[in-house]
Protein: Thioredoxin family protein
Organism: Paracoccus haeundaensis
Amino acid sequence: MAVSPPVCDFDAPWHDFALRDTDGSVVTLPQVAGSRGTLVMFICNHCPYVRSILDRIVRDAHTLMDHGIGVVAISSNDVAAYPEDSPALMKDLAQRNGFRFPYLYDADQSVARVYGAECTPDFFGYSADGRLQYRGRLDASARTAAATDARRDLYLAMVQIAETGQGPRDQVASMGCSIKWKAA
């Protein structure tokens, strides 16, 4: 089922975390925060929305990192129900796609809950001082990728945040598969 999260709650603070990466090392928010802003992405391996744009996510993440923006990807899905999202397969996906950013596993789903993540992909763009300035889509892609010349909404928003500290006021929500929550 497709889910579309709410748009940006401007100036909401980011939330610290300490999660394991695909090599088992603990990574914290201060370790990934960029001097000009930080992008926290909730993604997963199995979601067709993520899979259709993964090459674009990696392209934009790497370009943003080159501009002083920190980037981190987090998977919070229940791996008992969705074994494709297991840490071992996360590591394989990250290696095959050349991730230069950490791909972290939120085993107890507490980070997704505190951020209010609702779907994959769900993008949270923060200013250098840790204030939310973007919660929107990567581009016009949905379950299938948009045209190759589609406006790069996330990339342009993060560049604006890096330059001005403020995100665009008009944002289009991301769309994707719901986070796969563990049974209560």
Notes: The chain has a mean pLDDT of 96. The CA atoms of residues 58 and 170 lie 24 Å apart. Residues 48-66 form the longest helix (19 residues).
